[in-house]
Design goal:
This is Transforming growth factor-beta-induced protein ig-h3. One of its GO terms (molecular function) is cell adhesion molecule binding. Residues 103-236, 240-371, 375-498, 502-632 form the FAS1 domain. By secondary structure, the chain is α+β, with helices and mostly antiparallel strands. The radius of gyration is 38 Å and the shape is elongated. A seven-stranded mixed sheet has the order 8-7-13-12-11-10-9. A seven-stranded mixed sheet has the order 30-29-35-34-33-32-31. Helix 12 crosses helix 16 (300-308), helix 22 packs across helix 26 (562-570) and helix 27 (639-664) packs antiparallel against helix 28 (671-682). The longest helix has 26 residues, at 639-664. 35% of the residues lie in helices and 25% in strands. It has five domains: 29-99, no CATH class; 112-232, FAS1 domain (Roll), CATH 2.30.180; 243-372, FAS1 domain (Roll); 377-494, FAS1 domain (Roll), CATH 2.30.180; 505-628, FAS1 domain (Roll).
C-alpha cells in the first residue's frame, strides 16, 4: 500500500503528460543553456558545467546543443573545458564540485566571482563598501577584471581622479536596489539603477545570452547574504539619448539625417520601443550610383522602405550574436545577421564598422553599405541581382528599357540565363513583339495567381495561368524562383521563353506540314469542329511519319472506319491542358476516349506511354500540342477486366429487376417491364 501511495503521483504525471510534469515556471533561455552545460559536464562529477572557450582568447560560453556539435563561436574554433557551475566549488579529494559556495556579503562575493578590480574601486570610495557589507538587498552587475582593463586610459583616469563622485556614480550605476535573478531579466526590460534612477537595459536572447547595456553576463546568480552578483564583460555607462538624437549629433550621419527627416521616420526613432538601427554612414550613401540615390531620395515611399529595411524589430547587441540568425526589419524583409570572429555580418558581408552604440530605445550599429530592399528597386535593378541578365539585355536592345526603369505597374516574365545557352534571338519585329508579351500590364504576386486566370500583355496577348501540383506556369513557361517585387514592377524568373498561343489546335495542325495526314484523319473522323472551338485540350499529335510507319492495310482499315478512327484520335487528346513544366515525374492524363495516358518527364525529355515526344508545348488558344512520332494505341481490355464489366452490368440489372419486382406486385402496367428484365438476366 505504501508503495502504491509513492507511485501514484508518478502515474498521474505520466498520464497527464508534460503539462503536469512541468507545472513550475518555464525556464528562461539562460537557464536552459546552463542546464545543457550541466548535462554535458555531469560525467566529470556533480555541478560541473561544460564551457566552450574561443581558442586564443579568454572568451567563454555556456554551450547549447547546436554549438556543442559545431564547436564554433562566430565561425571560430572552440575547445571544451569543464568548470564548476555558478554557485559551486571543488572539494579536495572529491569528484566534481559538490559544495555550494559559502554565502558572504556582496563585497566578499565580488572576489569570489573574479571581480577583484571592482572590489578595489569599491574600497577607494568612502561610502560604497559599507553598503555592500551591510544590511539590505542589492543586485550588482560587476565588470570582470578584464573589462576594467579594457577601458580607455582617459576614461579610467577620469574615474579614479574623482573617486567619491565619478567613480562612485559609475559603480552605483551598476547596482539595483533589490535582488534580481536571471529568470527576472526579461528581454527588452529596463531596471532602475542606484545612480539617479537611470535605466539599465536588459536583453535576454533565445540563445541564452543575457546582456546588460550590451555587456554580456559571464557568470550569473551568485548569491550573497545581502543580494546577488552577476559578472559582466564590460563596464557600462549611462544612456541618455534616443536613436534619433544620436543620429543628429553624429557627423558621419549627415545624409542619413536628411533622409530620416524627409521620410518622417524621426517619430519612430525618437519614440518608445527597442529597435536596432543599422545606420548607414555618409560613405555608404556615396557608394550608390547618383541616379539611383536621387531616385530613391525623391520618392517618399521608396525612401521609407529603404530606411525601414535598416531597422530591426528588436534590439540586438553584438555580444548576443554567436552564429547566424534571421531577423525581420520594419520593411518586412529578413536579414541574416551573423558574425565572423569579432566582425558582425549582414547577409554574409562584414559591413559593420562600429557596433553597440546604445540608445534609450535600442542600439545602433554603423554600416558602410546601403541595404536597399527590393521594394525600392526598379525592374532593371532587380534583374541585375538575378540570373536573368541575358533576358534584360534583350529588352534593352529591343528598345524596351524604359518599361523596366519607369513608373509603369508591370510584371516582367524574365527567362533564366540558361535558356539562352545556345544563343540569343536576333532583334527584329517578331522578337520585339515576343518580348512585349513577356510584360504583364499589372504588378502581380504569384501567390495570388489562380488556375485559368488570363493576363493581358503589353503585346496585346492574353496569357493563361496553369496551376499544377508542383508548378505555377504562364502558358508554356513556369516560374523558376521566388518573386522579386520592386517599387513599380515585379520580376518573375521563368524557366523558358514564353510562346503565346497563335490559334486553335486545328489552326496549329493545319499550319504545320508535319501534321497533314493527322489533319485529314481528324476531318474524316468528324473532330474538326471540336478542335476549333473553345476548350482545354492536350493533343499528342502524330506526325506524318507516324502514319507512314503503320502497315498499309492497317492504316487503310483505320482510315476507312470513321468510328474506330475517332476512337483512336480521341485517345490522343487529354481533357485538360498539361504543359511540360507541370508534368513532374509522371502524370496519368485522362483522354477523351476514356483511357488514361501516362505522361512523364525527366531531364526536360517528355514521353507519353513511353513514346518520345519530338516537340512539346506548341501552345494553342484552346490547348497545347505535343508532336509525336507514333500512333498511340488504347490498352486492350483484358479478360478479367471484361469479366468485371459484365459482373457490374449484371448487378445493375439485378437491382433494377428487384425494384420492378416490388413495384409489379402493385401495378399491372409494370409487369411486362419486369419480365423483360428477367429475360436480360438469363442472357
Amino acid at each position: 500500500m505504501a508503495l502504491l501511495v509513492r507511485l501514484l503521483p508518478l502515474a498521474l504525471a505520466l498520464a497527464l503528460g508534460p503539462a503536469a510534469t512541468l507545472a513550475g515556471p518555464a525556464k528562461s533561455p539562460y537557464q536552459l543553456v546552463l542546464q545543457h552545460s550541466r548535462l554535458r559536464g555531469r560525467q566529470h562529477g556533480p555541478n560541473v558545467c561544460a564551457v566552450q572557450k574561443l581558442i586564443g582568447t579568454n572568451k567563454k560560453y555556456f554551450t547549447n546543443c547546436k554549438q556543442w556539435y559545431q564547436r564554433k563561436i562566430c565561425g571560430k574554433s572552440t575547445v571544451i573545458s569543464y568548470e564548476c557551475c555558478p554557485g559551486y566549488e571543488k572539494v579536495p579529494g572529491e569528484k566534481g564540485c559538490p559544495a555550494a559556495l559559502p554565502l558572504s556579503n556582496l563585497y566578499e562575493t565580488l572576489g569570489v566571482v573574479g571581480s577583484t578590480t571592482t572590489q578595489l574601486y569599491t574600497d577607494r570610495t568612502e561610502k560604497l563598501r559599507p553598503e555592500m557589507e551591510g544590511p539590505g538587498s542589492f543586485t550588482i552587475f560587476a565588470p570582470s577584471n578584464e573589462a576594467w582593463g579594457s577601458l580607455p586610459a582617459e576614461v579610467l583616469d577620469s574615474l579614479v581622479s574623482n573617486v567619491n563622485i565619478e567613480l562612485l556614480n559609475a559603480l552605483r550605476y551598476h547596482m539595483v536596489n533589490r535582488r534580481i535573478l536571471t529568470d527576472e531579466l526579461k528581454h527588452g526590460t529596463a531596471l532602475t539603477s542606484m545612480y539617479q534612477n537611470s535605466d539599465i537595459q536588459i536583453h535576454h536572447y533565445p540563445n541564452g545570452i543575457v546582456t546588460v547595456n550590451c555587456a554580456r553576463l559571464l557568470k550569473a546568480d551568485h548569491h550573497a547574504t545581502n543580494g546577488v552578483v552577476h559578472l559582466i564583460d564590460k563596464v557600462i555607462s549611462t544612456v541618455t539619448n534616443n536613436i534619433q538624437q544620436i543620429i543628429e549629433i553624429e557627423d558621419t550621419f549627415e545624409t542619413l539625417r536628411a533622409a530620416v527627416a524627409a521620410s518622417g521616420l524621426n517619430t519612430v526613432l525618437e519614440g518608445d520601443g527597442q529597435f536596432t538601427l543599422l545606420a548607414p554612414t555618409n560613405e555608404a550613401f556615396e557608394k550608390i550610383p547618383a541616379e539611383t540615390l536621387n531616385r530613391i531620395l525623391g520618392d517618399p515611399e521608396a525612401l521609407r522602405d529603404l530606411l525601414n529595411n535598416h531597422i530591426l524589430k528588436s534590439a540586438m547587441c553584438a555580444e548576443a550574436i554567436v552564429a547566424g540568425m534571421s531577423m525581420e526589419t520594419l520593411e518586412g524583409t529578413t536579414l541574416e545577421v551573423g558574425c565572423s570572429g569579432d566582425m558582425l555580418t549582414i547577409n554574409g558581408k562584414a559591413i559593420i564598422s562600429n557596433k553597440d552604440i546604445l540608445a534609450t530605445n535600442g542600439v545602433i550599429h554603423f554600416i558602410d553599405e546601403l541595404l536597399i530592399p527590393d521594394s525600392a528597386k526598379t525592374l532593371f535593378e532587380l534583374a541585375a541581382e538575378s540570373d536573368v541578365s541575358t533576358a534584360v539585355d534583350l529588352f534593352r536592345q529591343a528598345g524596351l528599357g524604359t518599361h523596366l526603369s519607369g513608373k509603369e505597374r508591370l510584371t516582367l516574365l524574365a527567362p533564366l540565363n540558361s535558356v539562352f545557352k545556345d544563343g540569343t534571338p536576333n532583334i527584329d519585329a517578331y522578337t520585339k513583339n515576343l518580348l512585349l508579351n513577356h510584360m504583364i500590364k499589372d504588378q502581380l504576386a504569384s501567390k495570388y495567381l489562380y488556375h485559368g486566370q488570363t493576363l493581358d500583355t503589353l503585346g496585346g496577348k492574353k496569357l493563361r495561368v496553369f496551376v499544377y501540383r508542383n508548378s505555377l506556369c504562364i502558358e508554356n513557361s513556369c516560374i523558376a524562383a521566388h518573386d522579386k517585387r520592386g517599387r513599380y514592377g515585379t520580376l518573375f524568373t521563368m524557366d523558358r521563353m514564353l510562346t503565346p498561343p497563335m490559334g486553335t489546335v486545328m489552326d496549329i495542325l493545319k499550319g504545320d506540314n508535319r501534321f497533314s495526314m493527322l489533319v485529314a484523319a481528324i476531318q474524316s473522323a468528324g473532330l474538326t469542329e471540336m478542335l476549333n472551338r473553345e476548350g482545354v485540350y492536350t493533343v499528342f499529335a502524330p506526325m506524318n511519319e507516324a502514319f507512314q510507319a503503320m502497315p498499309p492495310e492497317e492504316l487503310n482499315k483505320l482510315l476507312g472506319n470513321a468510328k474506330e478512327l475517332a476512337n483512336i484520335l480521341k485517345y490522343h487528346i487529354g481533357d485538360e491542358i498539361l504543359v511540360s513544366g507541370g508534368i513532374g515525374a509522371l502524370v496519368r492524363l485522362k483522354s477523351l476516349q476514356g483511357d488514361k495516358l501516362e505522361v512523364s518527364s525527366k531531364n526536360n525529355v517528355v514521353n507519353v506511354n513511353k513514346e518520345l515526344v519530338a516537340e512539346a508545348d506548341i501552345m494553342a488558344t484552346n490547348g497545347v500540342v505535343y508532336a509525336i512520332s507514333s500512333v498511340l494505341q488504347p490498352p486492350a481490355i483484358r479478360p478479367q477486366e471484361r469479366g468485371d464489366e459484365l459482373a457490374d452490368s449484371a448487378l445493375e440489372i439485378f437491382k433494377q429487376a428487384s425494384a420492378y419486382s416490388r413495384a409489379a406486385q402493385t401495378s399491372v402496367k409494370l409487369a411486362p417491364v419486369y419480365q423483360r428484365l428477367l429475360e436480360r438476366m438469363k442472357h
